Amino acid sequence: MSQKQLKEAFISNLNGTSLLEISAGLSLAPLCLLCRGLLLILYYLHHGKPVSSRKYSLLLDFLVLVSPLLFSCTVLSPIIFFMPVILAAFCAGIFSKIYSQRKQEARAPFGQIVKEFQKAYLDPEYIPAVTVFRVYVNVLTSISILAVDFPQYPRRYAKAETYGTGVMDLGVGAFIFGNALVCPEVRQKSYMTQPRFSNLARQMFSVWPLISLGVGRLLSVKSIEYHEHTSEYGVHWNFFFTLAFVRLAASVLLAIFPKHKAWLVALALAVLYQLLLSTTSLKVFILHGSDGRDSRLGFLDANREGLLSLLGYLAIYLASVQVGLWLLQRRASVRGWLEALRGLALAVLVLFVLLHLCQACTEPVSRRVANLPFCTWVLAHCLLLLSLFVLTDLTLVFTKLLVKGSSVPCCWKVVQPPDSSKKHGMGAVPVGREDKLSRLCLISAINKNQLLFFLLANVMTGAVNILIDTIHSKAAFTLCILHLYMFFNCLIMYILHARNIVLKFW
What span, in angstroms and rounded, lies between the C-alpha atoms of 286 and 40? Predict the structure, then answer.
């Protein structure tokens, strides 16, 4: 077998892993974020000032926010269920240290602190969990697209061939979910009236880079005979095209139907698509081609997985728009967000029950056809991750109240109550130094240039695969390559952010 055939076989015919293992892995990112925040607060408690060195800030962020994820999906994957426990215990130890070492004059009874926490006002214009969710999906995807080519990355985490729940299968859906959370329809203020198809015009202008990247990827992969998994999207299709066309189609539907009814459109689309899969020969065509022998004749047949799965991804996108609209409902206090967190937890529980019923009544989860169970699974796990980030942010807000003056970048800002601000003729006024510190945050850096980060990761993944025999790499060499790859990518984002450069011209 040629090197190309070896690498294609290495990522083919896989069956995924369990929902429980994916849930355990997803909990690591929020725990890493919590650990970083607690360490920064502890530093402020001891030194009376935040970390001011860009060099040390980048090093801390990379070692705490990124490196544990690299280890967890490679050499530490056999103990993945113990890692959340270890990280949670470490965070509990740091919190205990902060609580016990507070300044004497700042100490107050625990009950009083809890009351103050519940009454605290948060910046209503910024929801850090959304930003962190989108950044972490990008980071985890960037890690996986290279790590999957090394033997240390468990095969069960890679994309399943037909049925199954692999970590990388979730990553595809999570990318769609994250894009929908910040789409024009969600960000548009409810009191603003705009022409019905204005958002569609905006989307047509903003998706051309994705189409350009899709064409660029297609030409480069074919020209250098780079290994590819044809049953993922087809011969010519790729995820850049999927994302672009889903965004355009969603804008058309949201221009026709009220956006606050997006969940109904999503449900109708997903159920109708599943009925077509279950009652017609559509599923056989997607899985086996027009002749039943995996033919690839004609554009539709050659790209049947990518083209027909658009219906499932469109349903995920529309449902995620509804989530985004719900999240942006004005909640000024911690109490309001605690209620929202309960709502998220209930939604996650309901979706997992529906997932079980869908699989029992129809078929298992399949990313390849993007069926109803796949849509339900993606929404369930994305909402789970999002709710964990909200919980992490609220925990950090509570800890910041213990240490007056402390601040954590990319975390909720505690603001003065609106009533007291009006007396002085002002709006909500932030308390702390988060705005200054955002320049020292790796999450903010990646968020500023997300598409560039993903593009750079794809280019570097291709370069590594061309230059290195990844399949036969030893563990130490694999970890070294993955850390260099991610650090270089993060460093470029960090430098651009420090210079306030945003490479977005569309």
Answer: 51
Separation between Cα atoms, residue 214 and residue 421, nearest integer Å: 49
Residue 432 has pLDDT above 50, yes or no: no
- 391/19 Cα distance (integer angstroms): 21
Read off the pLDDT of residues 115-143 as tens digits, 9 standing for 90 and up: 889 889 998 888 999 999 999 999 999 99
CA distances from 191 to 29, 97, 139, 187 (A): 36, 47, 35, 12
What is d(CA 259, CA 326) in angstroms, rounded to the nearest whole number? 11
Banded pLDDT at 426 (limits 50, 70, 90)? very low
- Residue 72 to residue 74: CA distance in whole angstroms: 6
The residues pairing with 298 across neighbouring beta strands, listed in sequence order, are none
Please determine, for residue 428, whether its predicted confidence score (pLDDT) is greater than 70. Answer: no
CA distance 372 to 234: 21
Integer angstrom CA distances of residue 488 from 96, 161, 456, 458, 484: 35, 32, 10, 13, 6
Model confidence at 435, pLDDT cuts 50, 70, 90, reads low
pLDDT one-digit tens code per residue, 248-296: 999 999 999 999 999 999 999 999 999 999 999 999 999 999 888 888 9
Residue found under tokens 């355009």: 248
Rounded-to-integer distance, Cα 133 and Cα 385, Å: 7
Q: Which amino acid is at 351?
A: L
Give how far the C-alpha of residue 278 lies from the chain's centroid of Cα atoms, to the nearest Å.
31
23: phi then psi, degrees, rounded to nearest 5: -65, -40
Burial of 456 (0-12, 13-18, 19+ CB in 10 A): middle
- Residue 433 pLDDT more than 50? no
pTM score of the predicted model: 0.94
What's the residue count for the chain?
A: 506
Q: Reduce the DSSP state of residue 425 to 3 states and report it.
A: coil
User: At how many degrees (to 10) do helices 372-402 and 262-279 cross?
Assistant: 140
Q: What is the DSSP letter of 191?
A: T
Cα distance between residue 446 and residue 329, in whole Å: 26
SS percent in the chain: helix, strand, coil, step 5: 70, 0, 25
